[in-house]
Amino acid sequence: MKLLEINNLHANIGEKPILRGINLSINAGEVHAIMGPNGSGKSTLCQVLGGREGFEVTEGSVQYDGQDLLELSTEERATAGLLLGFQHPVEIPGVKNIYLLKEALNAQRAALGLDDIDTFAFMKQVRELTKTMGMDDAFLHRGVNAGFSGGEKKRNEILQMLLLQPKLALLDETDSGLDIDALKIVSEGINRLRGGDRGIVLVTHYQRLLSYVEPDFVHILYQGKIIKSGDKSLALQLEAEGYQDILDAAS
Ligand code: ADP
Ligand code: MG
Ligand code: MG
């Protein structure tokens, strides 16, 4: 089943074209890695799909789960199961982490016509997930990401994903800044998300993550276009050879 279909997507930041004709098709159950040099437009692509402000789509179309994604508001996208993790997660010191998790879950349930989750059931579920992610319960009662280390923010991001069970998860450099143990835990979290009818997009610079979370497809984004796609061996090739030959061949 087709989950996401991007056709000739162009997007600007201000007057500047950043995405310049993206085509990408994701079936339910697939994991797609997006790699590419700094400044290629990887984060922009994730943010445009997530419906963040500050981008203007100038051409192209995006179908998500049978809907015109670009017609949906940011909130509608989230409740429709498209969740965006952040390369640089926001800090909201005044809001407790656990409160935000519960609000997000209840918003999603409300969109499905369900009542708020029972507090006891919610606490049980969240405690299990904090354990899975190797986090202390104290994190739940701190401000959202407030003073969290880079690795703690990334664990928190996967915890959110495991709780909310998105249909399509966009993870932007979830592996950056992680030590080896945290990388393993985060990878295991992503692998738990994987499968069924879920789609996962992993933006990463490193093969290391992809040895734990093996992608079905690897795409190289460069200057706002996907210039090459392949299977996991493409990431291994990049690791061994760097980008230059591929960029040269594409230009
Ligand atoms: P990547 O994630 O692949 O490193 P980005 O999507 O962050 O790339 O950036 C793509 C291009 O868009 C870069 O040239 C970057 O400088 C530019 N860009 C990103 N954000 C802004 C912004 N807020 N204003 C102007 N240019 C931006
Ligand atoms: Mg970057
Ligand atoms: Mg980026």
From TrEMBL:
Highest rank taxon of the organism: Bacteria
Gene3D superfamilies in the cross-refs: P-loop containing nucleotide triphosphate hydrolases
Keywords: ATP-binding, Nucleotide-binding
GO molecular function: ATP binding; ATP hydrolysis activity
Signal peptide: none
Domain ABC transporter: start-end pairs: 4-248
Spans through the membrane: none
Protein family membership: Belongs to the ABC transporter superfamily. Ycf16 family.
Protein's name in the database: FeS assembly ATPase SufC
Species this chain originates from: Halothiobacillus neapolitanus (strain ATCC 23641 / DSM 15147 / CIP 104769 / NCIMB 8539 / c2) (Thiobacillus neapolitanus)
